[in-house]
Amino acid sequence: MCAGHDTHYPSWLNNSSAPADCGYAGIGLVCEGNSTLILPVSDVLLGGGNCPAVRHQISFDKTWMHNTSSNDSLTFFFGCDPRDPVAPDFYTFKIKCTGFKSPPDAGPGDSFVLMPGELERYLVHELATNCSKVVTVPLRGDVLMAESNQINFTSGGYGNVLKRGFELDWSRITEDGCQQCEESYGQCAYSQHRVFLGCLCRGGKAGNP
Questions:
Q1: From first to last of its 209 residues, what are the pLDDT tens digits of the chain?
Q2: Within a domain: 7
Q3: Rounded CA gap, 207 and 187, in Å?
């Protein structure tokens, strides 16, 4: 249990003091302070209080996990040349937070955040040539919808959306002994290198196949 949630196979509680015994490698969940249950993907958010910057594209183990249809996205443009003559109204989307800091590898310049519908209205590839870093991250579509109409979206609202995360589904796409194991109501044991080790069967037995 963590934060009122029971961790079930094929995920498992990634307790650093004990190795994983069964479940799918790469989808171990971390319990933070017994208050938050998370799936580590990558260190994405960079400080900023209500207005964090995103370091890079979000990555996760796509062997088992994939985005759900309820996800949407935000695209960030960092280190943009303020002399850009392409779209003057692009500055409507400038991040306006006091003390906002773009990622260290972005260089000087202005930063912007755009939703998918806004991206379609602009010559994104042309705009990107005037910015040193472009990052697109997934997030929950319902949360974005609720926050997108707020007047403070570029001065804090987008941060609320990022902090609510995004959704992932899991599915087994590998061809190994796991399918036969699960069809017989067993649970699959994998090494940390995603090698199928055996089936933990009902009654305490283990076997492969």
A1: 887 888 888 888 876 555 555 678 778 888 888 777 777 776 666 665 778 888 888 777 677 788 888 898 989 999 887 665 556 667 788 898 877 888 888 888 888 888 877 766 666 666 777 888 899 989 899 989 888 877 888 888 898 888 888 888 887 666 788 888 888 899 988 887 778 888 988 888 888 76
A2: no
A3: 11
Distance CA 66, CA 173 (A): 11
Residue count (the chain): 209
- Identity of residue 176: D
**Distances 183 to 67, 107, 200 between C-alpha atoms, Å:** 25, 53, 12
Structure tokens at 6: 């029971």
Structural domain range at position 93: 45-59+70-166
d(CA 204, CA 45): 43
Radius of gyration of the chain (CA): 21
Q: Are residues 132 and 157 in the same domain?
A: yes
- For residues 53 and 144, membership in a common domain is answered with yes
Residue 16 falls inside a structural domain: yes
